[in-house]
Automatic annotation (TrEMBL):
Residues 67-86 have a biased composition (Basic residues). GO terms for cellular component: large ribosomal subunit. Signal peptide: none annotated. Belongs to the bacterial ribosomal protein bL35 family. This is 50S ribosomal protein L35. InterPro entries: Ribosomal_bL35 (IPR001706), Ribosomal_bL35-like (IPR021137), Ribosomal_bL35_sf (IPR037229). It holds the Pfam family Ribosomal_L35p. Residues 67-93 are annotated as: Disordered. One of its GO terms (biological process) is translation. Keywords: Ribonucleoprotein, Ribosomal protein. The keyword NADP does not apply. GO terms for molecular function: structural constituent of ribosome.
Amino acid sequence: MFTSLLRSTSSLISRGTSWNISMFKTHIMPSPSLLTNITERGLAGKALLRTNKSAAKRFRVRGNARIKRNKAGRSHNTGHKGRKRINNLAASAPINGKKIEDRMRRLIRA
């Protein structure tokens, strides 16, 4: 099938035909590896669970399996804040609360 597609495209090129995607719609077939990959990923069966990327960028799992987060209030408007306060805001903090931690684990798939 691929050779017939190649022959048809080479004949179109030699004739100077303008390209149109509709000419190739009947020839496009997904590869067998793609079809098996779709079933492995769950698109053919169970729904695919995806990581929430915004949460994955904000939260990390520590070595002791707790989830850490960054503190707010250090990115701008720090001119009136004391140096000790800004340094304390730089340190990461754990997520306190079992239910909130479980919710974050589901979001980041940890």
